[in-house]
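B., you asked whether I could sanity-check this one before it goes into the benchmark set. Here's the sequence:
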Amino acid sequence: MINLIWLLMIVTGFAFAAAQGKIEVVTQAAFDGAATGVTVCFGLISVLVFWMGMMKMAEDAGLLGRIAKLLGPVVGFLFPDVPRNHPAMGYILSNMSANLLGLGNAATPMGIKAMQQLQELNPDKQSASPAMCTLLALNTASITIIPTTLIAIRLNYHSANATEIVGTTLMATIIATFAAIVADRWYRNRALHRPPRVHKSDNPGMKG
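And here's what the prediction gave me:
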């Protein structure tokens, strides 16, 4: 669906530019956008490499382990249907720890691994389990103490005070995470009172 939306936007832009006889503006914008994308990527690489290295040092020093222990009771509350000793818990804790430090690129692989482990626990392989929905909501809204990527972008564009967004980002992500948890609890309670779904393949008496 997203691909269709982007295709529609591109085709519409070309159509309007052609109708106004300004097709060269679209071509120039495409080249400028590509150049800007490369410039931003190179600007981000150094900062992300630095913070990834810092995270590796924190992991080797045991800092991430301590953060994981502090988050343990919270994760246990948020994921009551996941066994405490299951590998998914480790990946969830790593994902949350990386998101707290604003390292979205480092959090993504851990989130994917956690989803794979949660899918193994999922009794209904055709739909997402409550735990999978919880992880998706938390990963999207995640509280961020240090918005590393945003700071890197602001530095790349020569911001006078690249770190001034730390406070507002922290407040915004706290509110977003609180809203995500409330919505997750509400849908979980709603699902508990809903009759289990029956797939056609599970009932030979039902005809498609």
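One thing to flag: The chain has a mean pLDDT of 79. Otherwise nothing jumped out at me.
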